[in-house]
């Protein structure tokens, strides 16, 4: 049976296979490599492909089913914080526990808390790396984007996702360094990656870890209302 794949040709010298976050097979080949040779190689790697795709499916199912409200804990700086409900007006972190208002939508309360925490915790990290790299953004904003952890505009405006606070601090460092490096290298050229590696030699492994946590960006999306409840 033929294995479906997406082919990307470039000026590279070798053929490589990767499995993306959706479980799709990506083949990156030299410009003139024949389809016959590409598919022969894919056939040789059939077992590896099946194993990797099964791993992605399992991971996606686990992440899709995770809900901080039903699970009773919230991922914060890479560690699970137990959630407890109390008669309070807003979320409070107290002795290793998140106290959440017992009225209203818990996810909305948690999202508001993350938004408030973002400048407090992320601004010092940006400042530290800006000084070390001698690259400073013109402005900083914190977002709730569904897919992007961060971005750097052509005018050097930095945007970071509040969901970064759910991640281990080493991954926050990676996103900040990655985006600051774009001030000097606006694309993902070899020079850009070399610049990031100068400060984070293990940036490739950090990137892979971050990719597995993509579900965190939609963790606090509002619960859809039924048609009867819609305005």
What does this structure look like?
The protein is of the alpha/beta class and 231 residues long. The chain has 2 domains: 6-65, no CATH class; 105-218, Metalloproteases ("zincins"), catalytic domain (Zincin-like, 2-Layer Sandwich). Helix content is 42%, strand content 21%. A 4-stranded mixed beta sheet has the order 4-5-7-6. Strands 1-3-2 form a 3-stranded mixed beta sheet. The chain has a 3-stranded mixed beta sheet with strand order 8-10-9, with helices on one face. A hairpin with a 5-residue loop joins strand 2 and strand 3. The longest helix has 28 residues, at 106-133. 19% of the residues are buried. Mean pLDDT is 88; it is low at 223-231.
Write a compact overview of the structure shown.
With 231 residues, the protein is an alpha/beta fold. It has helices at residues 35-44, 46-65, 68-71, 106-133, 169-184, 190-199, 203-211, and strands spanning 6-10, 16-19, 25-30, 73-76, 79-86, 92-94, 97-101, 139-143, 150-152, 157-161.
Strand content: 15-25%
Q: Could you give me the name of the CATH homologous superfamily of the largest domain?
A: Metalloproteases ("zincins"), catalytic domain
Strand order of the largest sheet: 4-5-7-6
Number-wise, the strands total: 10
- What proportion of the residues is helical, as a percent range? 40-55%
Distance between the termini: 50 Å
Overall mean pLDDT score? 88
How would you classify the helix and strand content by structural class? alpha/beta
Reported for the largest beta sheet, the result is: 4 strands, mixed
What is the second-level CATH architecture of the largest domain? 2-Layer Sandwich
Low-confidence stretches: 223-231
């Amino acid at each position: 049976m033929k294995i479906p794949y997406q082919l990307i040709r470039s000026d590279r010298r070798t053929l490589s296979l990767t499995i993306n976050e959706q479980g799709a097979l990506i083949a990156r080949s030299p410009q003139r490599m024949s389809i016959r040779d590409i598919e022969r190689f894919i056939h040789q790697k059939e077992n590896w492909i099946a194993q990797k795709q099964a791993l992605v499916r399992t991971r996606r199912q686990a992440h899709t089913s995770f809900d901080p409200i039903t699970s009773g804990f919230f991922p914060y700086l890479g560690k699970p914080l137990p959630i407890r409900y109390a008669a309070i007006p807003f979320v409070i972190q107290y002795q290793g526990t998140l106290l959440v208002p017992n009225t209203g939508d818990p996810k909305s309360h948690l999202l508001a808390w993350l938004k408030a925490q973002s400048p407090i915790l992320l601004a010092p990290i940006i400042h530290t790396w800006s000084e070390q790299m001698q690259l400073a953004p013109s402005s900083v904003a914190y977002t709730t984007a569904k897919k992007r952890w961060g971005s750097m505009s052509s005018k050097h405006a930095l945007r970071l996702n509040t969901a970064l606070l759910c991640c281990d601090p080493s991954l926050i460092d990676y996103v900040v360094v990655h985006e600051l490096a774009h001030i000097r290298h606006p694309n993902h050229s070899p020079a850009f990656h070399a610049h990031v590696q100068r400060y984070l030699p293990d940036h490739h492994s950090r990137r892979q870890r971050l990719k597995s946590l993509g579900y965190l960006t939609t963790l606090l999306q509002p619960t859809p209302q039924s048609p009867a409840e819609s305005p």
